[in-house]
Specification:
Length: 20
């Protein structure tokens, strides 16, 4: 698990993944 992956998902699908 990496922060970069989570950040990428947030930037890619901000609608599906809320910004924590």
């Amino acid at each position: 698990m990496g922060l970069a992956l989570l950040t990428g998902l947030q930037l890619g699908s901000v609608t599906h993944w809320p910004i924590i």
